[in-house]
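Tokens in:
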């Protein structure tokens, strides 16, 4: 089964926030650091700044090597009330051989503490829950990222260990069975 390239919407129809795929040409422009000429929605200071720089380079290379990953990976968190991208969220790639996908999300620091990460995570969990190839959702979080750890706590994620990430340092590994995601409350 393929994954939708269309915007991913929140399971609650009353929630306007959605996740939009980044067009390939925009992804590669951001990955190369060439945001001149991009529409304002893609060229805001957060998306073109140092907090997202590595992400775009990494995802651009990933899509160049594996074009089929594009619908799964980093999308823009869009708040239509602001007509703006307020952050990024997506999976690190399609499900692996064991049916595992890893979530990632990042919200513009100027717009944090407004529920955007929560809404993005709920959308990602809904996508994972409805895709037949996904059995497990993983989140890896720095031990000092209290806000992100508190966010996933309400969704039934279980700590599975730790790992060292060359980009992010020490991370705690959390996993959630998709079957359990059906019953977890946010």
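Residues out:
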């Amino acid at each position: 089964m393929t994954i939708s390239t269309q915007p991913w919407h929140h399971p609650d129809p009353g929630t306007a926030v959605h996740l939009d795929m980044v067009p390939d040409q925009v992804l590669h422009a951001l990955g190369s650091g060439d945001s001149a000429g991009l529409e304002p929605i893609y060229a805001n200071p957060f998306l073109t700044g140092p907090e997202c720089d590595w992400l775009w380079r990494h995802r651009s290379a990933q899509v160049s090597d594996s074009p089929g990953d594009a619908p799964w990976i980093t999308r823009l968190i869009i708040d239509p009330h602001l007509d703006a991208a307020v952050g990024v969220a997506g999976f690190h790639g399609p499900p692996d051989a064991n049916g595992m996908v890893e979530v990632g999300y990042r919200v513009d620091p100027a717009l944090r503490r407004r529920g955007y990460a929560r809404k993005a995570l709920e959308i990602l969990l809904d996508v994972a829950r409805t895709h037949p190839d996904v059995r497990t959702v993983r989140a890896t979080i720095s031990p000092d990222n209290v806000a992100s750890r508190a966010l996933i706590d309400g969704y039934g994620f279980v700590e599975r260990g730790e790992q060292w990430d060359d980009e992010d340092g020490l991370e705690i590994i959390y996993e959630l069975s998709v079957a359990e995601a059906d019953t977890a409350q946010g």
